[in-house]
Request: fold
Amino acid sequence: ARIALGGVAHKPWFAEKASAALAGKSKDNIDYAGVAALAVEGTKPLSQNGYKIPLAKSAVERALRAAVEAA
Reply:
C-alpha cells in the first residue's frame, strides 16, 4: 500500500515511512495509529496551518481502517 496526502502541502505528500510500515503486514497486524503518526512525521506547519497535522493524522488512520475493512 502507498499513502499520499493531498491538500496539506504545496504538492501531494507521499508518506514513505508510513507506506513502508505497511509492507508485509496482514490486515490483522496493522498499527493504525502508528502508521498515521509516521505519515505526518517530519511535518513543519506554517504559522496559520498547524491544525492540519492532527487532521491529516486522523484522516490517514480513518482511511486506512476503511480500506482494510473493504478489502
The two ends are 12 Å apart (CA to CA). The helical segments are 16-22, 32-40, 52-70. The beta strands are 4-5, 13-14. The CA atoms of residues 5 and 11 lie 9 Å apart.
